[in-house]
Amino acid sequence: MEVLDRIVATCILTLCIGSLHVIALKSQLFSRTARHSGGLPHSTRTPISYETFYFDQRIDHFGFLEDGTFKQRYLVSDRHWQTPGGPILFYTGNEGDIAWFCNNTGFMWEVAEELGAMLVFAEHRYYGESLPFGQDSYSDSKHLNYLTSEQALADFAVLIQTLKSSLPSAQLSPVIAVGGSYGGMLAAWFRMKYPNIVVGALAASAPIWQFPGMVPCGAFYRIVSQDFASSGFNCDVNIRKSWNAINNLSSTASGLAWLSSEFSLCSPLKQQADALSFKSWLQETWVNLAMVDYPYEANFLQPLPPWPIQVVCKSLAFDSAVSDQQLLRGVSMAAKVYYNYTGSSSCLNTSQTATGSLGLMGWFYQACTEMVMPMCTDGVQDMFEPEEWNFQAFSDECFSMFGVRPRADWAGTVYGGKDIASHSNIIFSNGGLDPWSAGGVTQNISDSLVSILIPDGAHHLDLRYSNEHDTPSVRNARQLELMYFKEWIRKAKKTPRTTSRG
Fold first, then answer.
1. Which residues are catalytic?
2. When comparing pLDDT for 356 and 197, which is higher?
3. What CATH number corresponds to the domain at position 279?
């Protein structure tokens, strides 16, 4: 796989107001839009409602030369907020449009009434509408220089402090950070870096240890392979065989034409080199399926049936040697479960594997600077072609794209790596089917740094809306999470903080 495809793989980490005290929000710090109703995520029964606001945020929190500001978007719902002092659930935005994550984080909406909580969904800088330099934000590495997790966390801290100081009813409100995937990493790091701002954090499917020297580089793809191995007869075995079959067919013009026709590709394969990107596309398809292997119909990345890997594996259940074409016909049928479950696609686009709501280029840059996540395959313990982790090649690719080189050890330095026992009040939830659990915290570290495992859960399943087809393990996980929330809120109200400290 090309180095750029490794960067793409790390991108898929991967999931509003009533009357919010209008007088306070007329402050010059804020601008606002009209009320919006969010879309109806699958399995919700009533539409969500929020209002969109924009906050004048500093471009650079850690230097003094760049003193410009930008409009950071955030979404708020106070429908169930019990004032004064009701809690605030604060979603730490991911690498994409915040409205998309708002609509896919049903857990927050479902517990808001019981907790009497305000919900705030904050957009991550450089994603969605929160562009520090407008249309020039992605123009070059100079403008991208302020796209870091540290700057984003500082954005969240300043936003919360300003909200609380502007709303008299919120001055004593305990704040809990919530996030999934990269947003979950940010939620955990937010509690670590700003314990004066948030009383606790739920970090769902947060691979905070998917960094050099912390976990084996092959662990991610081993979990993907295990998911397929347990979902159908010979499923992983035949995917492993498919790579050589593609190599064989792509060696001739007629084979390339057959592959293009069989897979209904929008852009036909024209030369043998095209097979590299084709295989990368398939590999990412299997990874995405592992992340969204939910027990009910869902459309988080694509519209999919319940337990989609089981459906995929039905087309790959060959029990004896078959021809390359027979094998790849099964692979084609399997891939179309992911890309054309609804039957509405006339062709498959190999340049797109997931929703357009994720900011791919922004994450490419973050992966090329501080979010360095080594991944490798060996073709033995996993179902993929062998590919070693080559940091130098990765660094060279980053330099050619952005003129920057990654700092492999920086995340471990700034966030503590595995030495986090001194922190408190963080829930790390992980699904056993989710490949990102390889880099997650899957054992209790202390009484207040706790791991919740969901054996049959995929990527941050616990943050999604409840569904009648949810398994007992995810139902239990949500109950535990809510229990911890209540305990943090109770303790925070017993020892209220001063307004100046948020």
1. 181, 434, 459
2. 197
3. 1.20.120.980
